[in-house]
Prior knowledge:
- By secondary structure, the chain is of the alpha/beta class.
- The protein has helices spanning 9-24, 44-58, 66-72, 86-103, 118-129, 152-163, 181-191, 222-228, 230-247, 258-269, 273-276, and strands spanning 2-4, 34-38, 76-80, 109-113, 140-145, 171-174, 298-299, 318-319.
- A 6-stranded parallel beta sheet has the order 3-2-1-4-5-6, with helices on both faces. A two-stranded antiparallel ribbon has the order 7-8.
- The two termini are 39 Å apart.
Amino acid sequence: MVMFGASGDLTRRLLMPALYNLACDGLLPKRFALVGVAMDELTTEQFRAKMSTDIRQFSTRKQFDDEVWSDFVRHLSYSPGAFEDATTYARIAALVTQLDGEWQTEGNVLYYLAVPPPLFGLISAHLARAGGTAADRGWRRVVVEKPFGHDLASAIELSRELLKHWREDQIYRIDHYLGKETVQNLLAFRFSNGMFEPLWNRNHIDHIQLAVAETVGVEGRGRYYERAGVVRDMIQNHMFQMLAYLCMEPPSTTGGGRACRSTSGRARRSGDAGRRSSCSSRKRPRSSSARPRPWSGWSRTSSSSTSSPIRRSRSAFRPSTPARP
């Protein structure tokens, strides 16, 4: 795994705690290595020391497991460099090759771009020139974080930039908010609950309120908020995603997260989510034989209380039973 922006706020608050949680739950493979990339001039040992300090501050587990972290931190490496410098990517390629031989990762590389969206195209172009987007063996994938553009036109242009260097099936566009356990539980609460599923419509729900009880301020993210703004950061992304989960129709299939993504997208595009989604004005059939059966097609990927941005996007849920008709 190559993490761009490894010295940033997202990495220390969410990404590294998520990886640590996966290690605690036995969900992280032993043949795993992480390369942090950022402009900070750090050595690998300094990077490990910084992450060791940050994880104790931002870990979400009730008790910190020093033994697990001591084993996990051995998998961390660091490569400093400017994102616009071609030599940065040559060093990354050499380090990835070295770690592939050391940890036997079979040529699989996941690039996580924890950087502002204007850098997505720049980093992807340099990776392509350095041979980082394609491989003779294994797979190559890229994860890009929200906000994905600032309007429809910029989002389309951003997708075009990425598709110049990646295939669509290699790209994972994610919102780390959807990795929160409570947010993921919304789908199971709606569609697997025989009590609430038949009542989840406009006839029985008067209104929806979303409370953002944030305890973290702007802190050192002033530059980001000057560009994005809190409305685009929280409402356009996190809150609309949650609203879509509340108002979307049941996905047509449980074969992966693609159907869930498409269905929630239709809810967001709807002019009136309360009218055109599952909170619709269509009345449910009154006969017991025609009543929709509780939907049990989604199962959790883990029983842990992890807020993991790694386990979301298209693979956030897996099918456990055949989809209902």
